[in-house]
Design a protein that fits this description.
The chain is of the alpha+beta class. A hairpin with a 5-residue loop joins strand 20 and strand 21 (599-601). The protein starts with a helix and ends in a 6-residue tail after the last strand.
C-alpha cells in the first residue's frame, strides 16, 4: 500500500506542475484560441496523471527539477526521540542482531508504520469514501428516476426528434421528464438519457430547441466518457486541491466547447438568440445538488458570462480558422514535448545505483576517533546510502574489538541482493575510514539472503593496500576512496598456467562509472604486464608497469621482464588517471601461486571473474565496435557510432545488422577531430545471450572492400536492407558522426577543455617545399626517427597526452638568414615551454639538420 501511495504522490506532484503550467499558458493565449482548443489542452494533464513516467527528453520541463527529487519526490520521515537521529542507539556489547535496551526507560524502535503506512491507509480510506459517495448518488438518482416520470407532450418530442436529426445523433436516446430533475442534463454511458425538468414545457420552441441541441452536443462529443474518466482520476487524487480546481475548470471548458459545437449547427443570426437562452436557463433553473454523474446546461454566473463572451467571438474564430488551428496545434505539441516527457537522468546513475550519492564533505564532517560517539556515528550512517531502510543501531564500546551493528529492513525494496551487498560493503569501507577505532562492522539485512554481513578492518584494507584511515585526511583523499569504491575489475580467466598457449596471461580490464578517467596504469610487483592484439595473437609490449587508454585490456603473465619465471604470488596495483595524470581511483589485485605453476586471482567483491558483458543489444554492439577499434592506436579518445538497421533472434542468439564506425579523436590544429578509424561500414554481429541477459560476441563480420563489396552485402544482409545500404543512407551516416562527436565533446567536458569538436577532415596546409625534399623529410626521415614521426606533416599542430602530460607538436615554416626554406618542429607543454625542437634547412632539394634542442628529461 505504501509503495502504491508513493507512486500516486509522484504522479500527483507531476500533475500539479503540469496543471499550473497549463493554466499559465491558457491565460497567455486566452483570446487566441477558441473554446475547443482551450478544452483540448487539458488532455496533457489527464494523460500525465494516467502515465506519469514519459520518455526522457532534454527539453522536458522536469529537467528543472533535481534528479534526486525526480527519483524520490517524497521521503517519509519517522518520528524519533530527541537526540537519537531517527534511530535508537545503544552502547551495549555487540552480539545479537536485535540489540537489547538495558534500564527501565523502555525505549523501543519507532515503527515505519507510523508515517508511511498511516498516510497510505488514510489516502486509501479517502478514496473509498469518495467512491462510495459517487456510487450512492448514482443509485439514489436511478431509484428516483424509476418513479414519477411525466409524459413529454408532442411538441417536446417533435422538437427533440428534429434536433436529434439535425445534430446527427443516433436513435437510442431516451427523453425523460421528471419532477426531481431541476435542470436539463444528460446521464448514462451505455444507455444515454436526456433529463428535463417539467418547467421545460413552459419554454418557447426556439429556447427548447437550443437546450436540446446543447444536451445532444454533449452526447455527440462523448463528454460523458470524459466526465466518468475525470471522476475516476479524482477518486485517486482526492487529496490534491489543485486537481479539484483543475477538474472544475475542465468541466467549465467542456460546457463552453459544447456551446461552440452547437453554434456550428446554427446560422450566424441565431447566435444571439442562443446566448439569450443561456441567460434564460440561468434565471429559470437552479444548479442541482451535487450529482457528479450528470452533465447539465446550467452553470454558475461567472462561467455563463464567459460562455456569452465566447459566443460573441464565435464568428471571429470561424473567420480565422486556419490561424486558430495553427495556434492550437503549436500549443498542444509544445506542451506535450515539455510536460509529457521526463527529465534526463544522470548518466552516472545508470552505471551504478549509488555512484553519485556519496557527499565527501558531509561524510568528512562526521569523522570521529571514537566508536562511542553515538551522535557522529548515527549521522554518518544517515549520510550513507540505504539510510532510509535503517531500523536501529548498536555500539560495542566496552572492550576490544570495538564494533558497530546496524539493522536494516529491505523487505519492501526493489534493489537486488547484489546491489545491497555491494553498497553495504562500500559503506563499511567508509565507516572504517571515518571511525578511527572501530574494528568490526555488522549489518543485519532483513529481506536479503544472507541475512547479515560482517566486515573486519584488516579484511577491507587488503583491497587498497593501505590503512583506510589514511583516506580521511581531507576532501581530496576521501574522494579518492569514494571513487575507488566504484571501480570494478574484470579478470579472465581467474586461473592461469604458462602452459595455456591460447592466452598470454590473465586478462585485466577496468570498469568505472565516471567519465573523468583517461588512462589506467598497472604496476606488477613481480610479474609482467603485456598488451596483446587478440586478432593477430601478437604481444605488442611487455613491462612491469604499463599504462593504457581507459577501456583497453592488459594481460598479466608470470614471466619477469628478463623472461625468467616468477614462482611466487604477485600484487598488481591498478591506478585510474585523468588526462592531467592525477589519480582518480586505485585498487589492488592479488594473484596467488600454489607452488606448482598455477596462478589464481584472489576473490574480492570488486573483482568480476569473466569478461565484462553488456546486458543490452545497444551496449553489446557498442562494446564490440570499440573492441574491434582497439587496433587504432593513434589518438587520445576512442569513440564509436552505430545504427542497428534490423535484428533477428534464433536459438539463444541475436544477430544485429548494423552500420558501424569507430574513430580515435585527437587534437589537430586546435580542433578535436577523428585522427584514425573508419567510416560507416556495414557490419553483422552475432551474440549469444545467457540466462542473465548478458551478451557475448560470437561473430563480427564486416563487408568486404573493393569489388567484393556488393556480393558481401547480399550475402550478409537480408534482402529488405540491400537498397538502404547500397544507397549510402546519408541520414544514418550523419547519425554515426553525431554519436561520435557527442562522445568526444563529453570527454572534453570531463577534462575541463573547451575546443571545437569536428568528426571530419580538418583543413591542412602542406609545407611549401619541393616534392623530393618533402618526401625525404616527411616520409623517409620520419620512418627512421620515431621522434620526428610524432610531428604533423602539415603546417600546424597535433596534440598528445604522454604519461599524463599534455603536449603540442607543431610544424612551422620560415626562411633562414641566407634565404633558404626552413622547417621547424617544436614540442611544447600547455604553458608554452619548448621541450624539444628540430630545425631543417631545405637546400638542393634535401633537408639538412641545422639545429636540435631537447631538455634532458625529455630525451627518449
Amino acid at each position: 500500500m505504501a509503495a502504491l501511495f508513493a507512486a500516486v504522490l509522484q504522479a500527483s506532484a507531476y500533475g500539479t506542475v503540469v496543471a499550473l503550467f497549463i493554466l499559465v499558458i491558457k491565460k497567455a493565449v486566452n483570446k487566441k484560441l477558441n473554446a475547443q482548443w482551450h478544452y483540448l489542452l487539458w488532455i496533457i494533464l489527464i494523460f500525465k496523471l494516467l502515465v506519469p513516467y514519459g520518455p526522457e527528453s532534454a527539453v522536458s520541463l522536469f529537467n528543472a527539477v533535481p534528479d534526486t527529487v525526480r527519483q524520490n519526490p517524497v521521503e517519509f520521515v519517522n518520528p524519533a526521540p530527541p537526540g537519537t537521529d531517527r534511530n535508537i542507539i545503544n552502547e551495549t556489547p555487540a552480539a545479537p542482531l536485535q540489540p537489547t535496551y538495558p534500564g527501565d526507560a523502555d525505549v523501543t524502535a519507532p515503527a515505519a508504520f507510523d508515517s508511511q503506512e498511516m498516510l497510505s491507509y488514510a489516502w486509501a480510506a479517502g478514496g473509498v469514501m469518495m467512491l462510495c459517495w459517487l456510487v450512492f448518488t448514482y443509485l439514489t438518482l436511478q431509484r428516483k428516476l424509476r418513479f414519477g416520470r411525466l409524459p413529454a407532450d408532442e411538441r417536446i418530442v417533435r422538437i427533440f426528434n428534429e434536433c436529434r436529426v439535425r445534430m446527427g445523433v443516433g436513435k437510442n436516446i431516451n427523453l425523460i421528464l421528471h419532477e426531481r430533475i431541476s435542470t436539463p442534463s444528460v446521464l448514462g454511458l451505455t444507455r444515454p438519457r436526456i433529463l428535463l425538468p417539467p418547467a421545460m414545457q413552459e419554454l418557447d420552441d426556439t429556447q427548447l430547441q437550443y437546450i436540446l441541441l446543447h444536451e445532444l452536443a454533449h452526447l455527440r462529443r462523448r463528454d460523458l466518457f470524459v466526465n466518468y474518466l475525470l471522476l475516476a482520476v479524482q477518486v485517486v487524487h482526492w487529496f490534491n486541491p489543485v486537481m479539484w480546481y483543475c477538474f472544475r475548470r475542465i468541466r467549465e471548458d467542456m460546457e463552453v466547447a459544447t456551446d461552440e459545437c452547437v453554434l456550428s449547427f446554427l446560422e450566424t443570426g441565431e447566435h444571439r438568440a442562443y446566448g439569450r437562452t443561456l441567460l434564460a436557463v440561468l434565471e429559470r433553473f437552479s444548479t442541482p445538488a451535487p450529482l457528479p454523474k450528470l452533465l447539465g446546461m446550467v452553470d454558475d454566473k461567472k462561467n455563463i458570462e464567459r460562455r456569452i463572451r465566447m459566443i460573441k467571438m464565435a464568428e471571429t474564430f470561424r473567420a480565422n480558422r486556419r490561424r486558430v488551428l495553427l495556434a492550437g496545434l503549436v500549443c498542444l505539441v509544445v506542451l506535450g514535448g515539455l510536460l509529457l516527457t521526463n527529465g534526463v537522468t544522470g548518466e552516472d546513475a545508470q552505471h551504478e545505483p549509488f555512484a553519485a550519492v556519496y557527499d565527501v564533505e558531509t561524510l568528512l564532517s562526521h569523522r570521529t576517533p571514537y566508536v562511542g560517539n553515538s551522535s557522529k556515528v548515527s549521522n554518518l550512517l544517515m549520510a550513507l546510502p540505504l539510510a532510509e531502510y535503517r531500523e536501529n543501531l548498536s555500539l560495542q564500546t566496552n572492550e576490544t574489538p570495538y564494533g558497530v551493528t546496524v539493522n536494516y529492513d529491505f523487505t519492501s525494496t526493489s534493489l537486488t541482493d547484489r546491489e545491497i551487498a555491494e553498497t553495504l560493503r562500500n559503506n563499511a569501507a567508509l565507516m572504517f575510514a571515518l571511525i578511527d577505532n572501530v574494528d568490526i562492522i555488522t549489518f543485519g539485512a532483513a529481506g536479503v539472503t544472507p541475512g547479515s554481513y560482517r566486515y573486519e578492518r584488516s579484511e577491507l584494507e587488503q583491497d587498497f593496500g593501505k590503512d583506510l584511515r589514511e583516506f580521511a585526511v581531507n576532501n581530496d583523499t576521501l574522494q579518492l576512496l569514494v571513487s575507488s569504491l566504484m571501480v570494478k575489475i574484470h579478470v579472465f580467466p581467474d586461473g592461469y598456467t604458462p602452459a595455456m598457449s591460447h592466452v598470454p596471461g590473465i586478462r585485466i580490464s577496468v570498469q568505472y562509472p565516471g567519465k573523468d578517467v583517461n588512462r589506467v596504469r598497472y604496476i606488477a610487483e613481480h610479474g609482467t604486464l603485456v598488451t596483446w592484439d587478440e586478432d593477430q595473437g601478437i604481444v605488442s609490449s611487455a613491462e612491469p608497469t604499463l599504462e593504457v587508454f581507459a577501456g583497453e585490456a592488459v594481460f598479466w603473465t608470470s614471466r619477469a621482464p628478463d623472461q625468467a619465471r616468477v614462482e611466487q604470488s604477485d600484487t598488481i596495483t591498478v591506478i585510474l588517471l585523468n588526462a592531467s595524470g592525477a589519480v582518480v581511483a586505485q585498487k589492488q589485485i592479488v594473484v596467488d601461486h600454489d607452488g606448482e605453476g598455477l596462478y589464481t586471482v584472489r576473490p574480492s567483491p570488486h573483482i568480476v571473474v569473466g569478461r565484462e558483458l553488456p546486458t543490452s543489444l545497444e551496449d553489446a554492439v557498442s562494446a564490440a565496435i570499440k573492441a574491434k577499434g582497439a587496433q587504432y592506436r593513434t589518438g587520445e579518445f576512442l569513440t564509436e557510432g552505430h545504427v542497428i538497421l534490423d535484428q533477428s533472434e534464433r536459438n539463444g542468439t541475436v544477430t544485429a545488422y548494423t552500420l558501424a564506425s569507430v574513430n580515435r579523436f585527437g587534437f589537430e590544429n586546435g580542433i578535436f577531430t577523428n585522427v584514425s578509424g573508419s567510416g560507416a561500414i556495414p557490419t553483422v554481429m552475432t551474440f549469444s545471450v545467457d540466462e542473465l541477459g548478458q551478451y557475448t560476441l560470437v561473430d563480427y563480420k564486416e563487408a568486404l572492400d573493393g569489388g567484393g563489396y556488393a556480393d558481401s552485402i547480399r550475402e550478409m544482409f537480408p534482402r529488405e536492407l540491400w537498397d538502404e545500404i547500397f544507397s549510402g543512407n546519408a541520414a544514418s551516416t550523419q547519425q554515426l558522426v553525431r554519436q561520435q562527436e557527442t562522445q568526444a565533446a563529453e570527454y572534453l567536458q570531463t577534462q575541463g577543455i573547451q575546443a571545437d569538436v569536428k568528426a571530419g577532415y580538418v583543413e591542412k596546409t602542406l609545407p611549401n617545399i619541393d616534392v623530393p625534399a618533402a618526401n625525404k623529410l616527411f616520409a623517409e626521415m620520419t620512418k627512421e626517427n620515431e621522434l620526428l614521426n610524432r610531428y604533423p606533416y602539415w603546417l600546424g599542430t597535433r596534440g598528445t597526452v604522454e604519461d599524463g602530460v599534455r603536449y603540442t607538436y607543431e610544424t612551422a615554416q620560415d626562411k633562414t638568414a641566407d634565404g633558404y626554406d626552413r622547417i621547424i618542429f617544436s614540442k611544447t607543454t600547455e604553458d608554452g615551454t619548448v621541450v624539444e625542437q628540430w630545425q631543417f634547412k631545405i637546400a638542393n632539394s634535401r633537408p639538412e639538420l641545422i639545429e636540435q634542442f631537447s631538455r634532458p628529461e625529455e630525451r627518449h
